[in-house]
């Protein structure tokens, strides 16, 4: 990722100083974060496969994708519970002597608007939560809150048959599951140093997510309560919450060890020779690499 800007300065001396400072910053940051003409490095693949963080985030991604793919499996049953269904449509066309096609169109519009409520909540929460996460520069605690919110939603779906409560539970599910997916993707990308290692971690998450996506369409087989499906999703979220907490603590410990090592080098009046190496060489084990919690 490269950021370019243009600043016009009338003073030639100041302009030269700014240009020199900018070049120093660019030359210092670019080699560490961006390797020109980066290629696949096999040892980074193995480093990614040995990294516990990659497995933690893969579990999280699998639970999130499982939740997203299964929402459409149970949401139509809420619409039927509120009376928006084909039987009402046919009865309406007979009772009021209107054409079947026009009645179908009216009910279809009402049905679509009704089913948009959870997705409307998801749209607002996705933007709001992601902006909040960027503002406080933290992913793990916000992700944990999102997963817990969706878990509460599934508990409501399993515990009641009240129509309004079911919609509220579905809104809680979408409120947490959609921004949770984005936060986990960001967590993967910012906490793996090295082009190939980062790609490996993302590939592991994608494989897990695709596999869980297939499962999500198969566990909802007992309408209208879908207790087995909701229970499966709740269990996956519990695993994801555990993976989130473990990943957070693992990276927090790693950051502390790097800080202790840096303090030791400073106390000895020496500089860590590994600081002169790039992230492509040392990956996220580079002494200057700090994990975003």
Count of helices?
Answer: 10
Q: How would you describe the shape?
A: elongated
- How confident is the prediction overall: mean pLDDT? 81
CATH level-4 homologous superfamily of the domain at 47-79 and 118-259: MFS general substrate transporter like domains
Structural class assignment: mainly alpha
CATH class descriptor name of the domain at 47-79 and 118-259:
Mainly Alpha
Biggest pleated-sheet summary: none
Radius of gyration: 25 Å
Distance between the termini: 21 Å
Q: Judging by the overall fold, what is the CATH architecture of the domain at 47-79 and 118-259?
A: Up-down Bundle
Instruction: Report the order of strands and helices.
Output: HHHHHHHHHH
Low-confidence stretches: 1-15, 17-32, 86-107
Strand runs, count: 0
Helix content: over 70%
- CATH topology (fold) name of the domain at 47-79 and 118-259: Growth Hormone, Chain: A
User: What proportion strand?
Assistant: under 5%
Q: Could you describe the 3D structure shown?
A:
By secondary structure, the chain is mostly helical. The protein has helices at 12-33, 42-50, 52-81, 86-95, 100-136, 140-159, 163-190, 195-216, 227-267, 279-282. The protein has a domain at 47-79 and 118-259: Growth Hormone, Chain: A (Up-down Bundle). The radius of gyration is 25 Å and the shape is elongated. Mean pLDDT is 81; it is low at 1-15, 17-32 and 86-107.
Key structural traits:
disordered N terminus; 10 helices; mainly alpha; Growth Hormone, Chain: A; 293 residues
């Amino acid at each position: 990722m490269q950021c370019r800007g243009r600043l016009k300065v009338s003073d030639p001396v100041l302009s030269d100083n700014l240009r020199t400072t900018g070049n120093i910053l660019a030359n210092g940051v670019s080699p560490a974060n961006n390797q020109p003409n980066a290629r696949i490095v096999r040892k980074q693949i193995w480093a990614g496969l040995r990294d516990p963080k990659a497995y933690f985030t893969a579990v999280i991604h699998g639970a999130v994708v499982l939740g997203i793919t299964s929402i459409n499996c149970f949401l139509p049953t809420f619409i039927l519970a509120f009376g928006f269904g084909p039987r009402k449509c046919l009865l309406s066309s007979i009772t009021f002597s209107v054409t079947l096609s026009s009645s179908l169109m009216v009910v279809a519009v009402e049905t679509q608007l009704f089913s948009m409520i959870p997705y409307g909540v998801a749209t607002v929460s996705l933007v709001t939560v992601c902006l909040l996460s960027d503002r406080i520069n933290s992913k793990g605690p916000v992700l944990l809150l999102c997963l817990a919110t969706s878990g509460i939603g599934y508990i409501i779906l399993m515990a009641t048959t009240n129509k309004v409560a079911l919609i509220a539970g579905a809104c809680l599910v979408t409120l947490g599951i959609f921004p949770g997916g984005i936060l986990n993707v960001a967590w993967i990308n910012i906490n793996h140093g090295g082009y190939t290692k980062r790609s490996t971690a993302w590939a592991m998450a994608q494989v897990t997510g695709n596999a869980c996506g297939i499962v999500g369409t198969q566990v909802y087989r007992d309408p209208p309560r879908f207790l087995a499906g909701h229970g499966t999703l709740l269990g996956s979220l519990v695993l994801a919450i555990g993976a989130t907490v473990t990943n957070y603590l693992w990276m927090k410990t790693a950051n502390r060890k790097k800080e202790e090592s840096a303090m030791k080098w400073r106390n000895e009046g020496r500089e860590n020779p590994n600081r002169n190496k790039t992230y492509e060489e040392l990956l996220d084990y580079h002494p200057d690499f700090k994990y975003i919690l």
